[in-house]
Automatic annotation (TrEMBL):
The protein's Enzyme Commission number: 2.3.3.21
Molecular functions per Gene Ontology: acyltransferase activity
Protein name (record): Citramalate synthase
Keywords, in A-Z order: Acyltransferase, Amino-acid biosynthesis, Branched-chain amino acid biosynthesis, Isoleucine biosynthesis, Transferase
Record family assignment: Belongs to the alpha-IPM synthase/homocitrate synthase family.
Gene3D superfamilies for the chain: 1.10.238.260, 3.30.160.270, Aldolase class I (3.20.20.70)
Reaction equations catalysed: pyruvate + acetyl-CoA + H2O = (3R)-citramalate + CoA + H(+)
Domain Pyruvate carboxyltransferase positions: 5-266
Keyword Amino-acid biosynthesis: yes
Gene: cimA
Pathway(s) of this molecule: Amino-acid biosynthesis; L-isoleucine biosynthesis; 2-oxobutanoate from pyruvate: step 1/3
InterPro entries with a match to the protein in the record: 2-isopropylmalate_synth_dimer, AIPM/Hcit_synth_CS, Aldolase_TIM, Citramal_synthase, LeuA/HCS_post-cat, LeuA_allosteric_dom_sf, PYR_CT
Cleaved signal peptide residues: none
């Protein structure tokens, strides 16, 4: 038996059965192309018997070139009818796909309760439907729904269902843990039995209701399954499907089952992130292999060791799956975290010197006050560069004032800012749709004459968190700000008991960080300065 595993992706079908996931035909086509580049062998595009979006997908996908087989999904024919008249089966054949998956019942309880038909009619539905697909030249995959539950209640009937599909010519028999309640030891035992009874190749399709979908898939492969069905990031009905982003590297790197090429494996992280962007579902930072924190090191003891050899705290080299190592700096940092971060910035730093210790103490003290640097890389860089005397004072705040009023039901917000740049004082006022926006506008208006490219920066995200909730409105707040110039994104932090002041701190860090990478222009001449409201000290 070959060791190669056929990867069957059902993100576009079972993945969209996950709550909150809805993909347009365009989205599906984009994801299908990405999956093809990843090297999966089957891409289940949807169910042409279900909705017109899926019909559109299959019409459009026909004109495109794929290495993977595009497959359509449907169910066995309806009870008491004939396959040739079944609209779901007809749509599959009309869609022109080279391969199709039909779901059919293998649990006697489901036959009686959900289908409300006889065990014999269910066997006939399976036989007729697969014979129909094969007569029409379609590669036929049988998703044997609830197989493990069915086997546990009535093994003879569950096995007879599989034999019917095989006799009708099904190319793959895929055993489904539809309710996700089976344990890995049971999966291994039952797959082993099925393999001894059938000649058709076996696949596995698991759900994550017991957080075991990946483990169950690996157990099935260990027992001889050679097709693995799953979704990117584990999207899917209820608690999700088996996560291919964990299954593929586990099979390929840990268990030596070839799935995709090593180069394709290196695109796993970008694929996972791309699909999460299109599906508009936030990826958990700690998602194994592909998450942002999958190879992020925070504890000082860990960082100290990985700087000696990353194998001390990494189970694989992150590059194998296209991810990368990150060092986080926080109150849990030791010197090693600081040194690693500073070296990344090209700063000359050593262990056990006074400066390193001072920086570490300052970070721990600020984190104690409520700052959080692991989510504010730009503020951390400014802190380190300040400590190394690398930051000139780009501007100095003299004062700011906020005016917030509600007149005739309309909110108006205005900020007045007074700053000094190279001994010149500038006053500006600007309105905004809220206090932070008004402050941002006023500060930019003051600085643009010195740093014109400041207009390319804008605020991308703004989060406020109450740090000490028991103090209610008197509590401190932490503001985390994300800014972008469309090429780069950076994050800054501010903390105060006043949300405007915390926002100002984060805003100033954001602008200082941006200015680090910008060239200054000569100051404007006296006359235009006067017009702009500039005064000399
Ligand atoms: C385990 C899985 O994930 S299976 C896939 C589940 N995915 C989906 O259901 C999403 C797509 N589904 C749909 O768009 C619709 O449900 C359709 C078009 C398939 C069917 O819609 P409707 O005809 O309105 O039926 P409805 O959804 O209410 O009920 C399902 C019907 O299919 C029947 N059915 C269920 N499984 C099978 C099967 N394997 N073979 C034949 N018939 C089946 C049910 O008995 C029920 O028939 P009934 O109406 O006579 O009781
Ligand atoms: C076919 C399928 O999606 C299941 O049984 O879970």
């Amino acid at each position: 038996m070959t060791n190669a595993i056929s990867i069957f992706d059902t993100t576009l079908r079972d993945g969209t059965q996950g709550e909150g996931i809805s993909l347009s035909a365009d989205d599906k086509l984009k994801i299908a192309q990405k999956l093809d580049q990843l090297g999966v062998h089957y891409i289940e595009g949807g169910n042409p018997g279900s909705n017109s979006k899926d019909i559109e997908f299959f019409e459009r996908v026909r004109t495109m070139k794929f290495n993977a087989k595009i497959t359509a999904f449907g169910s066995t024919r309806r009870k008491n009818s004939i396959a040739e008249h079944d609209s779901s089966l007809l749509r599959i054949v009309e869609s022109g796909v080279p391969a199709a998956t039909l779901v059919g019942k293998s649990w006697d309880f489901h036959v009686h309760t959900a289908l409300q038909t006889t065990l014999e009619e269910n066997l006939a539905m399976i036989y007729d439907s697969f014979a129909f697909l094969k007569r029409n030249g379609v590669e036929a995959i049988f998703d044997s729904e609830h197989f493990f539950d069915g086997y546990k209640h009535n093994p003879e009937y569950a096995l007879s269902v599989l034999r019917k599909a095989q006799d009708a010519g099904a190319d793959w028999i895929v055993l489904c843990d539809t309710n996700g309640g089976t344990l890995p030891s049971e999966i291994h035992e039952i797959v082993t039995r099925v393999r001894s009874e059938l000649s058709a190749p076996i696949g596995i399709h698991t759900h994550n209701d017991c957080e075991l979908a990946v483990a169950n898939t690996l157990a099935a492969v260990g027992a001889g399954a050679r097709q693995v069905q799953g979704t990117i990031n584990g999207y899917g009905e209820r608690c999700g499907n088996a996560n291919l982003c964990s299954i593929i590297p586990n099979l390929q790197i840990k268990m030596n089952y070839p799935c995709i090429s090593d180069e394709q494996l290196q695109s796993l992280t970008t694929t996972a992130r791309y699909v999460s962007e299109i599906a508009n579902v936030h990826m958990p930072v700690g998602q194994p292999y592909v998450g942002n924190a999958a190879f992020a090191h925070k504890g000082g003891i860990h960082v100290s060791a990985i700087m000696k050899d990353s194998k001390t705290y990494e189970h694989i080299s992150p590059g194998l799956v296209g991810n990368k190592q990150r060092i986080l700096v926080s109150e849990l940092a030791g010197q090693s975290n600081i040194i690693s971060k500073a070296q990344e910035l090209g700063l000359d730093i050593n262990a056990n010197n006074e400066k390193t210790k001072l920086i570490m103490e300052r970070i721990k003290d600020l984190e104690h006050q409520g700052y959080q640097f692991e989510g504010a890389d730009a503020s951390l860089e400014l802190l380190l560069r300040d400590a190394f005397g690398q930051m000139e004072e780009m501007f100095k705040l003299e004062s700011f004032k906020m005016l917030v009023e509600k007149t005739n039901g309309i909110m108006n917000t205005e900020a007045i800012v007074k700053i000094t740049v190279d001994e010149q004082t500038v006053y500006t006022a600007a309105e905004g749709n809220g206090p932070v926006n008004a402050l941002d506008n006023a500060l930019r208006k003051a600085l643009v004459q010195f740093y014109p490219s400041i207009n390319n920066i804008h605020l991308a995200d703004y989060k406020v968190r109450v740090i000490d909730e028991k103090d209610a409105t008197a509590a401190k707040v932490r503001v985390l700000m994300e800014s972008t110039d469309f090429n780069n994104t950076w994050n800054t932090v501010g903390v105060s008991s006043n949300v405007i002041e915390a926002s100002w701190e984060a805003l100033v860090d954001s602008i200082r960080y941006a200015l680090l990478t910008m060239s200054r222009v000569e100051h404007v001449q006296d006359e235009p300065r006067a017009q702009l409201g500039l005064v000399n000290h």
